[in-house]
Amino acid sequence: MHFNSTILTIPGLGGSGPQHWQSIWEKQYNFTRVEQSDWETPVCADWIENINIAVNRYDPAGVILVSHSLACAAVAYWAQKFNVKIKGALLAAPADSEAESFPTVTNGFSPMPLLKLPFPSIVVSSTNDFYVTAERAKLFADSWGSAFINVGNAGHINVSSGYGEWDEGLTFLKQVEI
């Protein structure tokens, strides 16, 4: 599979380990990770600054963001603050920062931003994600103006849910690139 866009991956809380689909994609397709100074106790303002710096290293019109979990909220906050027109975003398994199950080690990610994104996007979620209900994921997609794809019982779409390689995700990413 070939991509004509600049693909930036943004892992969620804890970063994505070597077996996570984001890390696998980075190696297979030479995607670039948006690094954060603190993956374990993240501050939203720091994360969105780092996203902005990373996006502006390239022509934003050719950039696609691939975020997972908490990074989906970070992308929405980044879009709200900077209003940069990128090519698009794939927002996988958005974590609900307002949910009781959400880790308390984060700062500034709540409330969930619910403004329309200034670029095309797809939200991919499951019916049994510990960090977000299917209803809340659909609310986020609707609020952000995103296409919504429910992949069924896929947990948090991460390694512990059986998603190292995620070929179906690459298909969704190609849909963003069109």
From TrEMBL:
GO molecular function terms here?
Answer: hydrolase activity
Q: Which InterPro entries match?
A: AB_hydrolase_fold (IPR029058), RBBP9/YdeN (IPR010662)
Source domain of life: Bacteria
The identity of this protein, by name, is: Alpha/beta hydrolase family protein
